[in-house]
Amino acid sequence: MRVGAKQDGGCSAAYIWTPSFLEYKLAPDHPFNPLRLRLTDELIRACGLLPQAAERRPRQATREELALVHDAAYVDAVERFSRGGETRFPEAGRFHRVSGGMHGAWGFEEPEPDDPLAYGLGTEDNPLFPGMHQAASWWVGATLTAAELVMEGKADHALNLGGGLHHAHRDRAAGFCIYNDVAVAVAWVRRHYGARVLYVDTDAHHGDGVQWLFYGDPQVLTLSYHESGRYLYPGTGRIEERGDGPGLGYSVNVPLEPFTDDASWLEVLDLTLPAVAEAFRPDIIISQNGCDGHALDPLTHLSASLDFYRQVPQRVHHLAHQFCGGRWVAVGGGGYDIWQVVPRAWTALWAEMSGRPLPDEVPSDWLNRWSPQAPVPLPPRFADEPLPGAAPERYAALRDYNRRTAQRVLSEVLPLIRTD
Amino acid sequence: MLVEEIMSRPVLAVESEYSVLEALNVARFRRIRHLPVVESLGVANGAREHDFRTLPPAPEGARLVGIVSDRDLRDACPSVLSAGATDFAALARASVADIMHGDVVTVHPHDSVEEAARLLYQHHIGCLPVVSGQGLVGIVTETDVLRAIVTLLGVTSPGSHLEVEVPDRPGHLGEVTRLIGQHQVNIASVLIVPGRREHTRVLVLRVQTIDPRRLVRSLEEAGYHVLWPSGLKLA
Question: Which of A244, A325, A345, A380 ranks highest by number of CB atoms within 10 Å?
Fold first, then answer.
């Protein structure tokens, strides 16, 4: 029985959900707040977009699965800190005499194996918290569940909102991300099915963790649209980062100017995404749907509106059917305006995946339930009111610059991609 | 960062009594733009290795006597437009010593990369032989220096760009980095550039965090003017 198939015989879509997602709570007042997942899940249900048959419970990822991309020593460390509990900040480096060294006898000692900072942990971005290993394993397991449903043909599409941790590296946490669920799922799909994977990342931050983990692999094409690293974390994602060795051409980066709006971003996306998919001919698309490029997002300087987050899944959906027999896994990602942006953006994503129409109005049940807690007025409609952005006269130059970026990608990277 | 950390070694060089034709072949087959010229090593003409694709590099410490660029070598060639353009006899007769530049700008392995960059810029040249004592030990090209500067700018590990305007007085770099350290945020690179306003400097830092908002607030509360990031709201 296919998951979440519609009566009319259209494509089927699975929605992966567990309340355990909410345990990925880095710290009180941390911007990566799991409440945004709860708000989104409740909005999807309030809109009547989620028939019971579409829902699937995930499993936790195993250590072996995490080890597909992470060092065993790193996973061990996360488990240890996970049990430890309290956040401790070790002293900032002990300065003492060491033998050798380039300029004589002073130097810093190597970090102890138990220093969380050696693993990118114990920082404001990635504080230690009890149960962090378990919580992160749910997120990875859910992306694996989504990938398995799709690869086994039990669903055409699958959505895991508790995913998209694209900044985690082989041996360290970064940018709120502990384990890289996307990279684990890509490696798992490669190992079990040998499928060619197109990874499309429209988070405002460069998808660096996924890119570097598959930088030399011509069977995995990573395509990231993001605010230019000149202005935003993590600083990478230049056009010149094109992959390495046999993977040359299979890392594609489209950096965007601050204040890029829907029109310019969609123009660039339409110039590059179908061309890359056509050149690569993937077996499955995995999309990361961070919505922090929205104009209201507090962490970035892009100026997309909610309509952009309706348009992008439409394009990916179309390409999944054109090239992959429908196989499409979507995950969440960044998104730090948890009240006005994330619930609506990801409800729109699920509406597109499940082939159900998105209502115009945000249901009053949901508004009434959450308005008392919201520090800002909740938008009553899915379409945005006019949003802040750059001065109108700047947009001609900005669009021209982004268009030139897209054309450089087409001339400098696209010709390196082979179908095979 | 020192020249010895970025230089290429061993160096492919020609001996001073090589013919211009031989030097041209080395430059062409090995795709080299700058050929240091070293004192003759006393290998008899004719016994020399003539497959220029496998010419061994100069022995470390050979005495540097000059330099020729691929442009010097081409200048010595007859024009393709003139009659007799295929007459290379003169090229085979002339020695490299006849056309090389004897007054070579060099660096020492312990010179800084900044010094190397300044020399390239000041003399409008493309490479610097690295000389220790009298001996040639390496070579640095403008590409090597640019690559080193890109590394020094610090965009090799994930981080956010931060620009802070500070008074051009002692102590402010220390104060700004202390405030950043209080947030447990690591710093990947620091540059100090002249400010747009008088008596100011701008600190350009790469800080290892995805969310610099609290940091920015601390800096602003301490009275600093944060030029970037701008307009980020703290909930």
Answer: A345
